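Field reference: sequence -> structure
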Amino acid sequence: MRIEYYNFCPVCNGSLGLKEIKENFCEKKRRSLYEEGEEIRKFRKFFKKGFGSFPRKLQIFWAKRLLRGESFAAVSPPGMGKTSFGCVFSMFLADKRKRSYIVLPTTLLVKQVMGRLEEINEKFKKSVKIACYHSEMKGKEKEWALERIRNGDFQILVTTSQFLSRRFREIQELRFDFIFVDDVDSILKGSKNVENILRLLDFGRKGVLMVSTATAKKGDIRLFRKFLGFDVGLSFSSLRNVVDVIIKEKGIRKLERVLEWIGGGGIIYTRSQEEAEKIWKELKSKYRIGIVISKEKKDYEKFVKGEIDYLVGTAFYYGTLVRGLDLPKRIRFCIFYGSPVFRIRLKDIRELGYKMIKVLALVFRNRPEIKEFLHVLPVIDKPKYQETLEKLKGVLEKLIEKGEKGSDDVIVRKGEIIFPDVRTYIQGSGRTSRLFAWGITLGVSFLMEEDEDMIRGFLKRAGYYDIEFMEWEAVNWERVKEELEKTRKLMCKKSEEPVNPVLFIVESPTKAKHISHFFGKPSVRVMNINGKPGLVVYEILTSRYVLLVTACLGHVTDLITGIGFHGVKIHGKELIPVYTSIKRCGKCGYQFTEEVEECRKCGSREIDDSRNRIIGLRRLAEETGFVVIGTDPDTEGEKIAWDLQNLLKPYAEVRRAEFHEVTRKAVVRALENLRVINENLVKAQMVRRIEDRWIGFQLSQKLWRIFEEKNLSAGRAQTPVLGWIIEREREHKRKKRIAWIPELGIKIENFPMDWKGRVKAIIQRVEERKREVKPLPPYTTDTLLKDANRILKISAKECMKIAQNLFEAGLITYHRTDSVHVSEAGLRIAEEYLDEEFVPRRWAEKGTHECIRPTRGIEAEDLERLVQEGIIFGEGIGRKELMVYDLIFRRFMASQAREYEIISRIYRVRIKEWVWEIERVIRAKGRAWEIYKWGLKVEGELEEGVVEVWMETKWVPKLPLFSQSDVIGLMKERGIGRPSTYASIMEKLFLRKYIVERMGKIISTIKGKKVYYYLSKNYGLLVSEERTRLLEEKMASVESGEVEYKNVLWELYQEVKKI
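Structure field:
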């Protein structure tokens, strides 16, 4: 395969070929495409000399960023050598006559770091001036230290964060090249500390800052983003390796049995201080147990030292025991003595904000009293709806006062509504399982609860977070106890490369943001490229990687114009596609590849060039040394991945991650099973794109000349589709006579005479049939587009956009598919939802894709509430997204339900001398029918005997005009287009004004007819339905590797050049 990337060579800025990429060699300048910088090579040697070993990949990653002049929050587990790095980097800069400041949380750490710096000084036989200040200094020593600091008589300064707060005046005139903050939380305690640090760095104009991540958002850290281009993330990771056990009883004796079974090293969480004190008093005579509550915290230190085995305290989200403990060796298990909850009492309703009122309204959404408010919930925060908001609060008060039933995952008791607090459970149980440099410790969490409603609600809510509880008897305790000890021993074990930095590229910013939040609260980095905002990068820790998640915004290259035959060089029989960056006008959205500074459509100079993103991605690839590409799992996604691989390969190793749903489980599985790029899929995409360019450009230029209009285009797929629409219009003009009896809902085809008036009809039941009906299969792209148009009146283009939003939000599986196959994960979701009504159906053999289905068993009504609560990621999820999600959910769940029963009747209808037999479905019953009712029309019974009815004959078209759903069905049936192009084919016909839509039906315009007739007459063979279908088959053969793509391209070229 030969291709060129126009002006993408990082050495000569000329074209870059695959041979050069493979050999990492610029043929024009005769040198490597990428060589590691001189400064980083010097740092490697410096580090090796200081510590006796080369720095880890993560430490090299930090060094590259600092040497580039970038400030950041260091994301890493404990034990990765952040403090050691801060020391050695400070010494490295001192060698270059630069000044550093190391800020530490305690005096003990200041003394330890000073000792380490002095050791390095001695090893290097240097005389780097190091100053320090701490609270244990006495008299003259303290005065001498302060004097040195005031005079700037040092190259490295080491102090506590308290010094920064209380003695900032001593250093306020100094400027530093590097500041290392070991514990950013200690800095954020001082109200002015962030601003002080920025002043010492000259607000980023002089120096760089490296900080740890925080345990909670506080202080004025937004200034870091404003002046240094990054946000501090939270160090609490949502990664957990916990065995969750439900014990359906409470009581001190049961609690004692658990403690005796599991041993020491645990926390007991209660709902209140009173309950914590009661348990502590009951157990303290038998066990070494302490208590941590607001007025009693001394036992915390005893637990840390191993003087006691257990702590008891409250399960409060921001409490010390829930968030403030980081003792992975000591804490092996926890016990929640009662489910953590938060309650809303009747007396609190009037004080609640509109967001919580929305949530409560959605809890009771099926109550008739609430239904009148549902349509105003999205705007109920507006001032003009203040009266409505107060009225809604009154209705909610009455419902809660009566204890009316709401959603299954909340508990309504007379006078209060109780929400199971799973977030606190996750935080608290997370103390038992901590990420460290070489893995995650195993922990055990027991939930002791005897209230059946509470158990049901808590387990259901836990499922939203992918937490599955086990009964005591189902746990392999022997293995669990073994792993509890084994994983803690691993904390002391050394490994070469425990956690490495990885650049993870996806298409959209929404997907990047969503994926990064699977693993905690990420640090955010804003990269400026050529003076403009280029990339937003989310940095987060997983069990194996420090992930830098960012978006490439889809395709980064396209065929160039003005070179070769419409972007393809022809050398003999060799065809060489030439790709260049994609430009998009920020004002009008026009997309092009020409190297111009102004949009040729509107003249705007606001041009977004994908070349800038490549520059940013190359910088990130060079920093990390490893790239994972997680673009969509289809030919387009594979081509994007291939382009990125080629453009980033000189800087890093590149692998592909494939996932068909944007869920945490799917992404983690993909990261554990990386693969190489499938070049057959790439070749198929290249053939399709080149064919589209060649046919489009050649025929479009003919149209421009003939019709003297530049806004015309032609394509091999869109032309036959336009022809179907024109042909259906012709057939639509042919008429037939029908008789319509509105009272009976009867339409009689081909009635022999005209009639208008009342008439006697004799209706007689002939037969009644009962049969079992298999539900419809789950959606594929074409059936989803058809139903969205037929049922929801949503266009194909809009439906695909909505489906993309749902996919990126992790709510449905990949939506560009022609498969109805259901995976094991899909079957599990359906079984949990349908229970006894579940009948597993695969529908088809496993292929590349799965059907379109929900990723969780959550109904649309619950989904809306959970998005409002913030439990489920809901960016970009509005009313229409919920409507389409509801369709997908219903169709899928119905497809896995038992066959449903339908009863139909055959009636004989006699009017005068004419007799007809009519069959109509009068009843349907079964879960599948209740869930999805659009697959069958139930018309009800007819009144039997002699009835007088109004009958009117009409002349109507023999065939109806097409709707968008009809056209999409035809494309699928006749093999024109693919799941990813059905909507775009329709969109092009609308965009070029070849067709319009009126009252849900499509008709061609005069322009559309003229273009079609011209193309059919002059290039009929080229754009015929049969030729288009044949080409689709050839492209599919390229995709499967059965046909060589070069041969298909050459055949296309011979065909197209004759135009």
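Note: The chain has 37 helices and 43 strands.
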